Amino acid sequence: HTQVTLRLEGNTQVKLSAVFEKHLQDYPDACVYLFGSRANPGERGGDLDLLVVSQHAQSDAYQIKKKLRMAIREQLGDQRVDVIVSADPNNNVLSPFIHLAYMDGVKIWP
């Protein structure tokens, strides 16, 4: 993962960090990656595509997705937010899409 300029306006990253801090506090191994068009400064538009990586969060994946989507919309206004939770994003046999999101994504938290 390389450090790139993200397409997040104003204090969006600060607001996102606060959401992750609150809603992922029970998962100390959790990391969040931004992928898709918002992780690419050369693209325009796009929703927030987030990958949460945690060995411990997988069993709560549905609740985590729901809580993060609601909290992010509350902080940033009405916009599309897609959240994926994965315990093993390196396993490209299990899910090639998640593996690609992980490899192309930019770690934004912690």
Helix-and-strand structural type: alpha+beta
List low-pLDDT spans.
none
If strands are numbered along the chain, what order do they take across the biggest sheet? 3-2-1-4
Principal-axis shape equals globular
Strand count, sense and barrel status of the largest sheet are: 4 strands, mixed
Q: Could you state the order of secondary-structure elements as H and E?
A: HEEHEHE
Q: How far apart are the termini?
A: 14 Å
Describe the structure.
- The chain has 110 residues and is of the alpha+beta class.
- Helices cover 34% and strands 19% of the residues.
- It is built from three helices and four strands; from the N terminus they run H-E-E-H-E-H-E.
- It has helices at 12-23, 61-76, 96-104, and strands at 31-35, 48-53, 81-86, 106-109.
- It has a four-stranded mixed sheet with strand order 3-2-1-4, sandwiched between helices.
- Strand 2, helix 2 and strand 3 form a beta-alpha-beta unit.
- The radius of gyration is 13 Å and the shape is globular.
- The two termini are 14 Å apart.
- The mean pLDDT is 88.
Compact summary:
By secondary structure, the chain is an alpha+beta fold. It has three helices and four strands; from the N terminus they run H-E-E-H-E-H-E.
Task: Describe the structure using short key phrases.
single chain, 110 residues, alpha+beta, four-stranded mixed beta sheet, 3 helices, 4 strands
Structural topology:
Blueprint: H1 12-23, E1 31-35, E2 48-53, H2 61-76, E3 81-86, H3 96-104, E4 106-109
Parallel strand pairs: 2-3
Antiparallel strand pairs: 1-2, 1-4
Helix pairs in contact: 1-2
